[in-house]
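Page 42, continued from yesterday. The earlier attempt failed because a stray header line got pasted into the input along with the sequence. Redoing it now with the clean sequence only.
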Amino acid sequence: MIMPTIVDISLNQTAASGPKIESPIWNAGLVGKRLVQAFRTLDRLPGLRGPRKPGGHWPRTATEWADQLAQAELEEDERRARGQASNRALIRPAASEIARMEAALEWLRELRALDPGLALVTALWAVRAARGRSLKALCIEKQWAPHTFFRKRAKALAFLADMLNARGEPVG
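This time it went through. Structure tokens are written below.
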């Protein structure tokens, strides 16, 4: 399921009469989008080997008629949530996606060396955005003012974009 995030800036610019043209320089929106994609890719990687998570060890049971009637009466949101939970197919990321993820996480490591506070704000924002979680709840949980949170996030993304442009890293 693809959740809408705060970063809705397209990687491509469309000319009035021509095909999509990729932006030659990094900007804050592109950096933010790449960080969110990195955490989505991280979530799709296989888990650690070892004991399974709790639950789900019993074989599936037959669904009776009364259960089917009760499921039919569920609200649409609840029915959709249960359907997504029962869909266990997970598409593993390709090597190119993993390479992009590692590069984006390296940017966060470099930012942490320069300013750990900005790196923390940016990493938590990207994780929450990638998983479709509430940023308002994050601010409440960490006792951060939302305005300050978004200002620091914007400053960090702009700093990372400037750093990538100074290095001459390609956007693709």
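Notes: The longest helix spans residues 146-167.
Reminder to self: strip header lines before submitting.
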